[in-house]
Amino acid sequence: MDLTLLYRGPLASCDYDCPYCPFAKRRDSRQALGADREALERFAAWVVSREGEDRLSVLFTPWGEGLVRSWYRRTLAELSHLPHVRRVAIQTNLSCRTDWLERADPSTLALWCTFHPGQTPYERFTAKCRDLTALGVRYSVGIVGLPEHLPHARRLRAELPEHVYLWVNAAEGRAYTDEEADRWTAVDPLFPYSRHPHRSAGLPCRTGESVVSVDGGGTVRRCHFVREPLGNLYDGSWRVALRPRPCPLAVCDCHIGYVHLESLPLYDVFAGGVLERIPARVPPRLPDGARAVPG
């Protein structure tokens, strides 16, 4: 069976202090970190056990920063070598060291990287990007679409290799004028998909059928945003619940959710890179003032 799993364990701590993030500079106790490590290792053992049974794609979406923890680095490197794992990726601020990637299979592993201006020097972040490029690691780079971030986004777009997709997330709760949206769309031609929440009520979505989320205890849900459980990963009770089903929520405003809506063409746009947010081809940039078709 082909399955995509979005894993989010109890890790909540982050080494950054972004003003737009509720997990900024949160610290986990030693006990909490131990619980996160144990949960991750149990999940990884389950993935290993599925060889010959399932073909898996895994995206780690921790609340905090995972790659500053050795167990996340080790797990990603190990899973990347499994023949039944098609893709393993993680969302990261890229503050981690990069030498561990030498032990990973770059044809399977990928990174979803976010630049947070004010938390790390621009040059330090882009040096890490150059490391990824030199190692042959697939990665995307993104930034939150706040006005003060626009110069950084433009500089990134000008200096990153052309094949590296630079995405822009609409800032949570922020309404963009057409003129503001045009400025961001000139940086990321796919920004219109992020600009507004997507109406999803009653629309078909791959979550709950071929995509599920898993928490640290093994509870399986259709996605991170619908709380109704489908069962538990480790007793297999969730499999009988897999079936096509419409979205029960009014809107979906997060990329890791709406990318799976069948009403949107994003599986075609991101073909081969849905989890790490890498489009099949880097979309041509639009000149300032040109209006993109919203998603």
Automatic annotation (TrEMBL):
Superkingdom of origin organism: Bacteria
InterPro entries, sorted: Aldolase_TIM (IPR013785), Radical_SAM_STM4011-like (IPR047771), rSAM_sf (IPR058240)
NCBIfam families: rSAM_STM4011 (NF038073)
Protein name: Radical SAM protein
Species, as recorded: Streptomyces taklimakanensis
